[in-house]
């Protein structure tokens, strides 16, 4: 516990909001998609944080705000202890050295007209460095590719290999933090496992920290130490991954986890099947955003939005709910 | 619907701005030309005195800016050139007055428009039918003889100059075969049959030229469309091939086609210059060409603005039709 | 076990491409009985989706299908298109992975469901419309009578998939082929759709062929499983055979590669080295051999001789196509 609190802060998002405006007639009230609606989020050195949620939860938007690809509507972004909310253009380059992004679709995020060598040297050049061939080869080797791949073009690779190239590109500037947006969701199961193992290896070898944005809770469990669950633009629960997975406190987390199919035929599980869809982020429900689909909803839930508060007697495990699930009996302290 | 209204209002406002900028640009260009329209109007012998008189009468002695402002004012309030018995009136909306033709530009345009519109609309309907159906046939027979034939026709159409095809058509159908009249225009109100009879050759010529783009676009779009998942869905539901192509495939093809069609038609309504020349039809294109030759600034500005307005209008109509054809398009 | 409604024997699908003949499906057998669920599992390029399209006769013209596809004992391969059309969407219906692209964006959901009904029933538009509302209601679309006129883009992902399911079920098909029906959906919505498919099957006794790469979903809904690799069957058995007694190294690899949400993670996932081969690239021996960790225990035979599905002794209908002949995991 104490080591965590002194460990260096890589990323801090303070009360971040990101609204996307919708055009409309002047006689109608201006509308906004509240993609991220008041999020506090910290990543420390050595952590692997999973950011999970369903489509429309705002997880990808949050990742883009954190990497300064999007400007927050409100709130601040601190990277390496420095407030970079208003840093733009060229001045962002030193920031980008510290934090890099890996995208979901390696096909779309690699320029098909550039060789792997050119793709990998682009981040160096952006920093004003001319990389040596040895440096590029080392990068390729780090992600399990080899020198012979340097002159090839993206279409000559399989999906898994392309994702490795995407990771190598992100690693080229030796970042402290890698933000991966759905890094394996486009890959086959057997290939997905290879990439997940690679991410784990890089964490161990390079001391890299990750934010892993994903909708697949099983994938996230495999590699993360901490978990944050998003719903309609807010974090509804966060805490050490093993605690959240084994004893979710927020009803949404509990329902989400119970919905993931488990490869054990014949084993009956109590599944909470949520009704309906995620409400529109244009007009989220008052009070608790989850109350319209919650199986524990009470009148109070419609009043004020609940804030993240410690649950299960742990200081790090927090949930934003008026009626959190009780801790499992064997875990009560 | 209020969304659509707001959309139209916004677009019309934008159009007005574009027209304003355009008219200014056209004025500037004509004042950069080192020639004097008054020279042509002053008659012979052109004494400096008479030249000055003509200049004053045509209001060319004012500064360029002043003339431009008078032009703008004339649109709303009308204009009067000279005074007394010799005064020439140009009623609002006045888009200028042509001294060589001694008519207000608005009247000239409205006189010539039916001819150009007859050519353009008839040809447009032909090339749309012709282009889309050949394009569909080509797509359905991809790689086979019919496909190659259609693409070949398209290639010939794209690469043939319109005057060449027009002259060839006059030569073959007009003189050799003596099937159609070689020139002239009969108003629709006079005799619909003669009207169509005189227009059939220019229609066909323009249609062949323009259909090329439509064949290619329809073919490409249909091929893409036939690969879409919802086409497979239609087949999986048990729909027959005709239904798959016509009901499910064609709708998506029409969206880009309508865009192209609207713009082409808008462009052509502003004057089919070469075609009108070849077939000796006095449409807007003919008006514009003669005006340029006579340094008739008022007519050039008027026709240019009118053409620009048609294209902007066509764009607007295309966007509205787009919204009708594709429920995903919102005019918010 | 009940009489199978759909039986597939020795199905081969070969595509003629510029690069030569590509065998996408290379001899597979499966069958499914009313009320039962067969899952076909495999990665990209395994031929699982091609197999389902072949059953429906929906493959492009460059695909050659041989073998037997029997619906209630009636051979479907070689049937004229008119006959096949009566079966598609009526006796065998298809549910696609991506409901957004499977639905035609230009028509309302009600129109599309009604169309599926009218293609196989001689009824008025009004009756078909009523039937569409009834089906949309049955698949759990709230306020179906009002939403029937909405367009696909106005629905959420889960609701769209319900529409596709309603469209597939509107004619009470005997067989429903669902190709990755929940892959594009969020887990909470996936749970809803799985439950819906389950309810539907119970109510109508539909035979379900589920094509999926998600072993979790398969474990949950399947009775029998066919594991495909490179166009061939690697393993076939009950769902318990696969998950508790996997006999093929590939199946075992897939199970090991799958991260789990319900138990604390292993330090590393078991992986299968390399990537799935492109169809047709492996012509002799076992297609999995280049990636297999057990091939050294067998030797040459894996490279020279193609393994056929052979029953596992004492395990009923459980079959695997592997020369190893023993349970692999005990050997490492």
UniProtKB/TrEMBL annotation, chain B:
Biological process, per Gene Ontology: transmembrane transport
Similarity field: Belongs to the binding-protein-dependent transport system permease family.
Annotated organism of origin: Kribbella capetownensis
Protein name, as recorded: ABC transporter permease
Subcellular compartments: Cell membrane
GO CC annotations, alphabetized: plasma membrane
Membrane spanning stretches: 12-33, 115-140, 152-175, 195-215, 253-275, 295-318
Chain coiled-coil ranges: none
Topology term for the membrane: Multi-pass membrane protein
Residue span(s) of domain ABC transmembrane type-1: 113-322
Entry superkingdom: Bacteria
Principal location listed in the UniProt entry: membrane
Keyword set, alphabetical order: Cell membrane, Membrane, Transmembrane, Transmembrane helix, Transport
From TrEMBL, chain C:
Any GO MF annotation of the entry: ATP binding
Region (Disordered): 308-332
Highest taxon in the source lineage: Bacteria
SMART domains with a match to the protein in the record: AAA (SM00382)
Keywords: ATP-binding, Cell membrane, Membrane, Nucleotide-binding, Transport
Topology with respect to the bilayer: Peripheral membrane protein
Stretches assigned to the ABC transporter domain: 6-255
InterPro entries, alphabetized: AAA+_ATPase, ABC_Ni/Peptide_Import, ABC_transporter-like_ATP-bd, ABC_transporter-like_CS, Oligopep_ABC_C, P-loop_NTPase
Example GO BP: peptide transport
Pfam families according to UniProt: ABC_tran (PF00005), oligo_HPY (PF08352)
Record-linked Gene3D superfamilies: P-loop containing nucleotide triphosphate hydrolases
Cellular component GO terms, alphabetical: plasma membrane
Primary location: membrane
TM region(s), chain numbering: none
Places the protein is found: Cell membrane
Family of the protein in this entry: Belongs to the ABC transporter superfamily.
Stated name of the protein: ABC transporter ATP-binding protein
Source organism of the structure: Kribbella capetownensis
């Amino acid at each position: 516990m104490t080591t965590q609190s002194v460990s260096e802060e890589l990323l801090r998002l303070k009360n971040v909001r990101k609204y996307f405006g919708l055009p409309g007639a002047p006689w109608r009230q201006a509308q906004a998609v509240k993609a991220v609606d008041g999020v506090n989020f910290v990543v420390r050195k050595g952590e692997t944080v999973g950011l999970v949620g369903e489509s429309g939860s705002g997880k990808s938007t949050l990742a883009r705000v954190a990497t300064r690809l999007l400007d927050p509507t409100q709130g601040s972004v601190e990277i390496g202890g420095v407030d970079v909310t208003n840093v733009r253009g060229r001045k962002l380059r030193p920031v980008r050295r510290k934090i890099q992004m890996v995208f979901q679709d390696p096909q779309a995020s690699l320029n098909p007209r550039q060789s792997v060598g050119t793709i990998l040297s682009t981040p160096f050049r952006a920093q004003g460095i001319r990389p040596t061939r040895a440096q590029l080869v080392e990068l390729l080797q780090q992600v399990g590719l080899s020198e012979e791949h340097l002159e090839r073009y993206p279409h000559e690779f399989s999906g898994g290999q392309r994702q490795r190239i995407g990771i190598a590109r992100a690693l080229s500037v030796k970042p402290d933090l890698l933000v991966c947006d759905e890094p394996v969701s486009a890959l086959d199961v057997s290939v997905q496992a290879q990439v997940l193992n690679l991410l784990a290896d890089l964490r161990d070898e390079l001391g890299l920290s990750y934010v892993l944005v994903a909708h697949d809770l099983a994938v996230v469990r495999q590699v993360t130490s901490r978990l944050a669950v998003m719903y309609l633009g807010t974090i509804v629960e966060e805490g050490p991954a093993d605690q959240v997975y084994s004893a979710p406190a927020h009803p949404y987390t509990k329902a989400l986890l119970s919905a993931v199919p488990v490869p054990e035929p014949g084993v009956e599980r109590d599944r909470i099947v949520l009704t309906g869809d995620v409400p529109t982020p244009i007009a989220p429900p008052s009070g608790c955003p989850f109350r319209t689909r919650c199986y524990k909803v009470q009148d109070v839930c419609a009043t004020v939005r609940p804030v993240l508060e410690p649950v299960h007697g742990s200081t790090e495990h927090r949930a934003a709910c008026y009626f959190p699930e009780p801790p499992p009996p064997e875990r009560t302290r | 619907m209020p969304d659509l209204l707001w959309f139209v209002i916004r677009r019309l406002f934008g159009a007005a701005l574009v027209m304003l900028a355009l008219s200014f640009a056209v004025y500037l260009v004509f004042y950069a030309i080192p020639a004097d329209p008054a020279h042509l109007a002053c008659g012979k012998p052109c004494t400096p005195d008479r030249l000055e008189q003509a200049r004053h009468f045509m209001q060319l002695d004012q500064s360029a800016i002043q003339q431009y402002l008078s032009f703008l004012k004339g649109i709303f309030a009308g204009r009067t050139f000279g005074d007394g018995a010799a005064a020439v009136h140009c009623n609002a909306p006045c888009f200028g007055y042509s001294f060589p033709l001694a008519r207000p530009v608005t009247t000239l345009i409205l006189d010539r428009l039916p001819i150009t519109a007859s050519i353009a609309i008839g040809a447009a309907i032909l090339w749309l039918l012709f282009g889309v159906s050949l394009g569909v046939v080509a797509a359905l027979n991809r790689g086979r003889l019919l496909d190659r034939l259609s693409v070949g026709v398209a290639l010939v159409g794209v690469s043939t100059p319109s005057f060449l095809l027009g002259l060839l058509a006059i030569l073959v159908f007009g003189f050799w075969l003596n099937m159609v009249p070689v020139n002239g225009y009969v108003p629709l109100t006079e005799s619909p049959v003669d009207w169509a009879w005189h227009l059939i050759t220019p229609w066909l010529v323009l249609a062949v030229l323009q259909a090329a783009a439509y064949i290619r676009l329809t073919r490409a779009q249909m091929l893409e469309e036939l690969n879409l998942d919802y086409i497979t869905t239609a087949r999986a539901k048990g729909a027959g091939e005709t239904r798959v192509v016509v009901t499910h495939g064609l709708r998506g093809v029409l969206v880009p086609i309508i865009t192209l069609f609207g713009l082409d038609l808008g462009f052509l309504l502003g004057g089919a210059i070469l075609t009108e020349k070849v077939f000796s039809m006095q449409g807007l294109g003919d008006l514009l060409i003669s005006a340029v030759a006579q340094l008739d600034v008022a007519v050039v500005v008027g026709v240019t603005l009118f053409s620009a307005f048609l294209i902007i209008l066509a764009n607007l109509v295309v966007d509205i039709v787009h919204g009708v054809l594709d429920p995903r398009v919102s005019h918010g | 076990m009940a009489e199978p409604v759909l039986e597939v024997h020795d199905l081969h699908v070969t595509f003629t491409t510029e690069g030569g003949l590509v065998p996408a499906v290379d001899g597979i057998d499966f069958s499914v009985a009313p009320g039962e669920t067969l899952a076909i599992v495999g990665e990209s390029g395994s031929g699982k989706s091609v197999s389902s399209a072949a059953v429906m006769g929906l493959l492009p013209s460059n695909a050659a299908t041989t073998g037997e596809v029997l619906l209630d004992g009636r051979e479907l391969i070689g049937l004229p298109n008119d006959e096949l059309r009566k079966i598609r969407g009526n006796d065998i219906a298809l549910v696609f992975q991506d409901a957004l692209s499977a639905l035609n964006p230009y028509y309302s959901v009600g129109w599309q469901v009604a169309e599926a009904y009218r293609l196989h029933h001689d009824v008025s538009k009004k009756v078909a419309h009523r039937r569409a509302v009834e089906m949309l209601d049955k698949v759990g679309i709230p306020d179906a009578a009002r939403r029937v006129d909405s367009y696909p883009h106005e629905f959420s992902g889960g609701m769209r998939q319900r529409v596709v399911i309603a469209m597939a079920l509107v004619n009470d098909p005997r067989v429903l082929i669902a190709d990755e029906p929940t892959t594009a959906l969020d887990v909470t919505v996936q749970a809803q759709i799985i439950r819906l498919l389950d309810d539907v099957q119970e109510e109508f006794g539909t035979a379900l062929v589920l094509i999926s790469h998600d072993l979790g979903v398969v474990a949950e809904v399947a009775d029998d499983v066919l594991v495909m690799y490179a166009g061939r069957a690697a393993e076939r058995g009950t769902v318990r055979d696969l998950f508790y007694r996997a006999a093929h190294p590939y199946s075992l690899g897939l199970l090991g590669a799958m991260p789990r949400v319900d138990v604390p993670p292993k330090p590393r996932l078991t992986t299968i080295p390399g990537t799935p081969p492109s169809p047709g690239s492996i012509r002799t021996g076992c297609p999995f051999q280049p990636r297999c960790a057990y091939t050294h225990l067998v030797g040459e035979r894996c490279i020279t001789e193609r393994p056929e599905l052979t029953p596992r002794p004492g395990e009923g209908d459980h079959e695997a196509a592997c020369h190893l002949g023993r349970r692999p995991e005990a050997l490492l």
